[in-house]
Design brief:
Length: 359
């Protein structure tokens, strides 16, 4: 069984502003530990897959950053998108490149900016997912995170009672993917016991995903076939630069996963977090006795349940709670914690006021 991996690393991480910037987005930051998030992702995968079989899809801005942070990654394995077009085109282009090099491989697709605490279990689950694909090559497999609270910020996967037992793990057939719920729905999903957070991690045979793309996204498939032919006589990056902007702006979830029939989910508990906003720091870091997550030069008095990070200069707080305070060289963010998901609205205002130097 040949395994390959595609790491999606083109995002801007806008909800992690002001530390995540256009020229240094979230996946290249040390959010947890002494490595950047993309370095951690590659390191986890190398426990299962050779670096020569790991591919990173990104945009032109970050190609040099990837080479600098992962110097042993072959340059040909950095796939450059000229424009953002969501996850379906990302998977599609990666699939035709990998198809040429590793034609019968099983492909793991995953984001570049997630936290995984139990790496040994994570790798074992990926191996199990690949075994499912070997067991039935028509299968598409996704990892569902077993929820431990009613999260409204994630999409969910509902499983049926139909299951396989592979490598001593339960693998359930998927009934449906559901959108981010309101709090009442999220509580219902948690109580039901057969709903899982959508991790955005997928595993499938390379020829299987190509077949599903042809069936459910025929226009994109035609573009991919055109690109495959052009690859033989032209520079791959030149072909992608020319053809990729014609791709649909669509997610792999909507384009394929919500339409395919034979989809399986593996329920997972391995200390996962998608680090979607600043409030994630409360989940992945220790809190002080007042419920604060504090990093840097901080003096706090009567300060509770806050996230405070200093860039060097002293931040002194008195009598505050439920705030996010993030200080960088040129920007200080002060935000109500329950509005952390809205930080993108600041980005929008900065663009409208042409304050691009702060983006």
């Amino acid at each position: 069984m040949t395994l390959t991996a595609v790491i999606m690393a083109g995002g801007k991480g806008e909800r992690f502003w002001p530390k995540s910037r256009t020229n240094l987005p979230k996946q290249f930051l040390n959010i947890s530990g002494n490595k950047s998030m993309i370095q951690q992702t590659v390191s986890r995968l190398e426990k299962l897959i050779s670096i020569e079989q790991i591919f990173v899809v990104t945009n032109e801005l970050y190609a040099e950053l990837i080479h600098a942070q992962i110097p042993n990654l072959p340059l040909d394995n950095i796939i450059i998108e000229p424009i953002g077009r969501n996850t379906a085109p990302c998977v599609g282009v990666a699939s035709i490149i990998i198809e040429e090099k590793f034609p019968d491989s099983t492909m793991i697709v995953l984001p570049s900016d997630h936290i995984v605490e139990n790496e040994e279990r994570f790798v074992n689950i990926l191996n199990t997912a690949a075994m499912v694909c070997e067991h039935d090559s028509d299968s598409l497999v996704t990892l569902g995170i077993t929820p431990n609270y009613p999260e409204t910020g994630y999409g969910y996967i509902e499983s049926t009672q139909n299951r396989l037992n592979i490598n001593d793990m339960n693998v359930f057939q998927v009934n449906q993917f559901v959108e981010k719920p309101n709090l009442e729905k999220a509580k219902e999903y948690l109580a039901a016991g057969n709903y899982y957070w959508n991790s955005g991690i997928f595993i499938w045979k390379i020829n299987t995903i190509r077949r599903y793309i042809k069936k459910f996204m025929p226009e994109m498939n035609d573009l991919l076939e055109t690109m495959k032919v052009a690859f033989k006589s032209n520079n791959i990056n030149q072909v992608i630069r020319s053809e990729f902007p014609k791709m649909p702006d669509q997610s792999i979830d909507y384009g394929i996963m919500e339409k395919a029939e034979k989809i399986f989910v593996i329920p997972c508990i391995f200390g996962w977090d998608d680090v979607g906003s600043w409030t994630a720091l409360e989940r992945i870091n220790d809190k002080d006795s007042n419920g604060n997550v504090i990093k840097g030069n901080i003096l706090s008095i009567d300060t509770k349940d806050s996230i405070i990070e200093s860039n060097g200069k002293l931040i002194a707080t008195l009598g505050i709670e439920n705030l996010i305070i993030i200080d960088t060289e040129d920007v200080t963010l002060i935000c109500a914690k329950d509005r952390a998901q809205e930080i993108k609205s600041i980005i929008k205002e900065l663009r409208e006021h042409k304050l691009d130097k702060y983006l």
